[in-house]
Amino acid sequence: MGVKIQYFTRKHLLGIAGLEPPEISELLDLADTYVESNRSPNKKFDKLRGRTVINLFFENSTRTRTSFELAAKRLGADTINMSVSTSSIKKGETLIDTAMTLNAMHPDLMVVRHGDSGAVQLLSEKVNGAVINAGDGYHEHPTQALLDALTIRRSKGRLGGLKVAICGDIQHSRVARSNIHLLNIMGAHVRLIAPRTLIPSGVREMGTEVFHDMREGLKGCDIVMMLRIQQERMQGNYLPSVREFFHFYGLDYEKLSNAKPDALIMHPGPMNRGVEIDSTVADDLDRSLIRQQVELGVAVRMACLEKLIGNLDQPGQGGA
User: Fold this and answer.
1) Once rounded to an integer, what is the mean pLDDT over residues 258-282?
2) In what order do the strands lie in the sheet with 163-167?
3) CA 124 to CA 228: how far, in whole Å?
4) Which of 61, 89, 185, 260 has its C-alpha lying 20 to 30 A from 113's C-alpha?
5) Phi and psi angles of residue 278, each rounded to the nearest 5 degrees, phi first
């Protein structure tokens, strides 16, 4: 048998932009192998036994942090969760000081979420181990896009050729940016649906179609991906009212009827029910993939941890 080609040889996972289709497919294929094992009584492996993973979250998170913690523990790694609210950051220590302090403890990998775009990139340049971006400012959230892609691929059998509508607060969403990059790389057709105030400049140059009428934008779509309204990031009047937003852009069955009859629904969470999505639609077991997204997030993060830590052992490999 020939030697299996390794496509994903990077040291860090800081974003989806710049990845090649074989790299993405390799991560998704590896994640696929963990889905069934995560449903079995014995979920533990020892592939990362003796390795150390630090979760360093400067922003609050439940799903992402817990998912990474589970992923690392299921692979056998020692896992440390840094509580930034009680750490030296609150005493005036800078991000770089924190990075250097943690680097001196020789972790193999750091999972970092930060409120400033580019902060995770900066930290990755100061440490010896691998770094995964768990969300930085308005920039990217690569593992969310990967788990969304795996969810779509397992449900539809492919990514290429699908029409995917991303709806809602595009302006403030790093999830949207990572998904736009990934879906375009893998040959899907991306539509963005939002009021003009929530569409960032330059998105058409990213290879998307933009719609301000939801019914028109959903026509012929295979996947409808709703986004959370991020009011905590909004400075100014982006929305006239929550009620008016739901009337025009909240997903209900009437608006969904404009998509394909077998169109499926996604949401990265947490959901604002009655704002971005009607509860009956979100809980529709025949149409909604929201629970699957949460489940597959652990498998995707296991794959990312395994690949990146494995790449540390390969001499001469590992770019950003």
Assistant:
1) 96
2) 208-211, 189-193, 163-167, 223-226, 264-266
3) 28
4) 185
5) -75, 140
